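In this section we turn from sequence analysis to structure. A common task in structural bioinformatics is to predict how a protein folds when a small molecule is present, because the ligand can shape the pocket around it. The inputs are simple: the amino acid sequence and a SMILES string for the ligand, here LBFN2T5F. Study the lines below before reading on.
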Amino acid sequence: MRFAKGHGTENDFVILPDPEGELDLTKETVRLLCDRRAGIGGDGVLRVVRTRAFGETLAPAARTAERPEWFMDYRNADGSIAEMCGNGVRVFARYLLHAGLVQGDRFEVGTRDGAKKVRVEADGDITVDMGFVEVHGTSSAKLARQVVHGTQISVGNPHLACEVAGAVADVDLTEPPALDGEAFPAGANVEVYRKVAPGVLEMRVYERGSGETRSCGTGIVAAAVAASPAGEAATWRVRVLGGECTVDLDPEGARLGGPAVIVAEGETSLL
Ligand SMILES: N[C@@H](CCC[C@H](N)C(=O)O)C(=O)O
């Protein structure tokens, strides 16, 4: 089976081209593919499937009249399915271009959270229009050595974005955060962030289904929204362990930009 490997600010993915939706992608297979010793290694899997061949029932948000040709079937490293992956869309878009499956510098990618508009920037960065971001109040999480408080945000998938007083490097993210199960019945991604300069955040993330990763696009957007006055336009540079992304916010929604690259292609015997 052919595969590719790519990343967006070191949030890395195994990419599986499966245009006609023929692959039976089990949880076990995803775990093995993402295993950094026994497999290829990645924070998740991006299955590249034609929307018309995608067997799963699409969420209402994804059932748009004009359906994009290509659908991103995203899985976390533990095999679970997530509604949305911001860096995943950017890397998926890079793969579509790289493989000659789309042309031009503006196109759409289907996701479980609906069709996402993608734009290739003059410098090669890829920006995705994440659409409207929902803010749902506040909650807390117990980390290994501290309790953090933050804003409950949906970027298609659930987040708790928590501002911390000290450097994010000092936060212990070695254990899965304990969340309020009523606020987050399906779990959540937890971000810790701090403002380090006007318009600049630093952030780390513990992702649902993948553990601590070096970047998370939806998490970057969640932190930017949590750091901004409600409803106001703002632009943030967000520094993560794997690099930097930009978030533009306005009342219409959020746009996430940054690098996205394909680093390898080959054959795997794991499928
Ligand atoms: N890394 C992603 C988010 C992937 C999904 C997340 N772990 C979840 O379960 O919601 C991103 O770049 O947004």
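Residues 11, 44, 76, 82, 85-88, 157, 189, 207-210, 213, 216-218 surround LBFN2T5F (CB under 6 Å). As an exercise, try to locate the residues that line the LBFN2T5F site and compare them with your own expectations.
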